[in-house]
Design brief:
By secondary structure, the chain is of the alpha/beta class. It has helices at residues 34-40, 67-79, 90-94, 108-114, 131-134, 139-149, 171-180, 198-201, 213-221, 225-232, and strands spanning 56-59, 82-88, 125-130, 154-158, 184-188, 237-241, 249-251, 254-258, 270-279, 283-291, 295-299, 311-315. One of its GO terms (cellular component) is chloroplast.
Amino acid sequence: MATVPCRSTWVSLWGIRPQVKLRPSFRKTKLTSQYGQREQDYDFPSEGPVSVKGGIVALGKFDALHIGHRELAIQASKAGIPFLLSFVGMAEVLGWELRAPIVAKCDRKRVLSSWAHHCGSVAPAEFHVEFSSVRHLSPGQFVEMLANELGVRGVVAGENYRFGYKAAGDASELVKLCEEYGMEAYIVGSVMDKNQSPKVKSLDSKDRGQVSSTRVRCALANGDIRYVTELLGRSHRLVMVLSELEGVILKGNTISVPKSCFLNLPPKEGLYENCTCLIGETLKVPCSAMIDTTHLHVESTQQIPFQDCRFISIEFGSAEGAC
């Protein structure tokens, strides 16, 4: 998807890469749900805090890490070192209902790493800002923070991006303010969804037919794995933590895992064929997965060493939906 220039003063997308070398890593954030709490109970490798100084940051929520989000990262990588900048704690501050994440927190780095071949062999890193600390900033104050406090060289945003207190700023104002602070601004056209079902569109008043996290959630709720795969640009991966095997039932080449072990959003209840069970970083075993009201049941024709793992994942094949 090409950038959509609306002003002659916009800087060319093909800017010179900054000479600043930034180490890709993740910034620790506050817990946002029971799913985050489960992950917080386990240690994951950390490379230390991120600095986005001199980089190009893509702005958004980045819940699903879908192909629209990937397009923002691609455009950021064309202009410099790419980062994803998003806010955490919005649900708590705004009183929204807490929901399971589409991508497990511990799985986000893997997804971003898979984008590297789209982004000039550079995997985008994430930088999180506490929403409570910026909630009352005006559009001008927000851009000032990006320029003076974070030291970013430029920003990338979708054409429908809103920012500032009560979403007062739009894409045009973002470009204007960035010019005032000596930053580059790139506005990217929406990645449109090929599936223009009225049922999907009616779920979100902001929906204009673009790929969105709302559409991903809807597809998962319908058990439409093929559609989920199209929106994500990859297979959906459900991550589960096996805490001292509590509630986990092992029998031959099958394992039953209670839903309380889920770290992210599963598809709807039903039988899913052509799945893959992942143990650790390298072991992959073909399997089928059945989700009922309380458990996920995994069955394979091969022996799977469940006893030796703390985490298992299921990747849902794109050829089938729920039976």
